[in-house]
Structure formats: C-alpha cells, structure tokens
C-alpha cells in the first residue's frame, strides 16, 4: 500500500471546507445529507461505532454514493480498511485510535482529533479537530476545552483545523470571534427539525 510522509501537509478539501458534518447511520441518511449540503455543508464524516461491519459497509456505501453525486468529500471515522473499500476521501482518527502514520499506509489523507495545545503541536495529520469546545454528549467524559484552545489553534495550527464540540447557532459566533473559520458539528444539524436551515444558519455565521 502507498505510504506518504508523516509531516503535516494540508489536505486541499479540508483547506477549502468551512462546515463539516459528522453523522452516524440513520434511516433517512440520503435525504438528510442532501438537505445538509443544500444548507452549506461541504465536508461529511460518517462516524458509526455500533453497527457490525457488514451493515457499516452498506451505510458507508450509501453515504459515498450520495456525497459523490453532490460533489462533497467523504471522511470515514476510525476505519481505514472500510474507507478504502468504499472509495472514501479521508480517514479520521482520535488520540486513542490507530496512529496517523499507520493509517497513512492505506494511501488516504488523515484527520486527527486534538484536545490540547500539546496534542496540536504533536499532530502530523492533514487536518485536525480542535475541541470539544463546549460540553457535548457525543464526547462523554471528555471535558470541554473552551474558546481558549480555539484561540491557541488560530495562532499555532500548521494545518487546516475545525473547531468542534457542542457548537450550534447559539454559540457559533463566539467560536468564530475566537478565530475559527471552520467548524464541525454533530447535533446542531443531526438533531435539527430542518437540517438545511440549521446548516445555512451555521454557514452564514462563518461569514463565507
């Protein structure tokens, strides 16, 4: 399998993206993704840890078909093997998952979650997540890092980065004021009655 340098190298799709949607499997996945993209989502991650591999593969194939048709890159969480099988564009890992250098052997760009200035300084990924900025049940047990870490990333990050964690229309402007130009969200769009509107509000708050 192809290998690449472990030094940070911006992934063009991450550099261009502004609103990153992280979603799990859902009955209305196709329609949901279409609505979110209409509202301004320009990067999608499928993160699903509950399904057996066969069902997860089928869900990823559905997500890949929709995102390909819409022209939006697809990121797979924590499963570089399945990412390759479905032709995904990138793999995302956490601090306790496979090392970035190992994931690179699958020939795909790699994103990495970071939770502290130390994590950020050590990161050798193509883009990073910065958070959780606010407390969120999707990261149970992980304390919020606050906008202070966002401010730090705005000055020190060497690759594209996305503020993530509890961001919604009530606080997104605080995150932008701290220096974020890219955000990633789960519930703010995933639990919205109108995902298209929710995405549009967040995208407008980003100012571009």
Q: How far from one another are the termini?
A: 38 Å
User: How much of the sequence is in beta strands?
Assistant: 15-25%
Biggest β-sheet description: 8 strands, parallel, barrel
CATH architecture term = Alpha-Beta Barrel
CATH topology: TIM Barrel
Encode the helix/strand succession as letters. Answer: HEHEHEHEHEHEHEHEHH
CATH superfamily: Aldolase class I
Report helical residue fraction.
40-55%
Total of helices: 10
Q: Return residue spans where pLDDT drops below 50 for at least 5 consecutive residues.
A: 1-6
In one word, what is the shape?
A: globular
Cα radius of gyration in angstroms: 16 Å
Number of domains: 1
**Which strand order spans the largest sheet, edge to edge or round the barrel?**
1-2-3-4-5-6-7-8
Structural class: alpha/beta
CATH class: Alpha Beta
Mean pLDDT level: 94
Total DSSP E strands:
8
Describe the protein's architecture and organization.
The chain is of the alpha/beta class and about 210 residues long. It has one domain (about 10-205): TIM Barrel (Alpha-Beta Barrel), CATH 3.20.20. It has helices at about 10-15, 30-40, 55-70, 80-85, 100-105, 115-120, 145-155, 170-175, 185-190, 195-205, and strands at about 20-25, 45, 75, 90-95, 110-115, 125-130, 160-165, 185. Strands 1-2-3-4-5-6-7-8 form an eight-stranded parallel barrel, surrounded by five helices. It is globular.
What is the gist of this entry?
This protein has 208 residues and is α/β, with parallel strands linked by helices. It has helices at 12-16, 29-39, 53-70, 80-86, 100-103, 117-122, 146-156, 172-177, 187-190, 195-206; strands at 19-23, 43-46, 74-77, 90-93, 110-114, 127-130, 161-164, 183-185. The chain has a single domain (12-206), classed as Aldolase class I (TIM Barrel), CATH 3.20.20.
């Amino acid at each position: 399998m192809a290998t690449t340098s472990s030094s940070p190298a911006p992934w063009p799709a991450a550099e261009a993206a502004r609103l990153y949607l992280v979603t799990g499997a859902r009955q209305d996945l196709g329609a949901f993704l279409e609505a979110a993209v209409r509202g301004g989502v320009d990067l999608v991650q499928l993160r699903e840890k509950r399904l057996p591999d066969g069902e997860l593969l089928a869900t990823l194939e559905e997500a890949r078909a929709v995102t390909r048709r819409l022209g939006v890159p697809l990121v797979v969480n924590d499963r570089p093997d399945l990412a390759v099988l479905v032709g995904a564009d990138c793999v995302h890992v956490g601090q306790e998952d496979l090392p970035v250098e190992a994931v690179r052997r699958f020939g795909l760009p790699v994103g990495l979650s970071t939770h502290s200035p130390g994590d950020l300084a050590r990161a050798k990924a193509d883009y990073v997540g910065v958070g959780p900025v606010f407390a969120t049940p999707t990261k149970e047990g992980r304390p919020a890092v606050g906008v202070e870490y966002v401010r730090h990333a705005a000055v020190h990050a060497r690759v594209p980065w996305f503020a993530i964690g509890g961001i919604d229309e009530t606080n997104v402007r605080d995150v932008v004021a701290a220096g974020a130009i890219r955000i990633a969200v789960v519930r703010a769009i995933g639990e919205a009655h109108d995902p298209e509107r929710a995405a549009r509000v967040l995208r407008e708050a980003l100012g571009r």
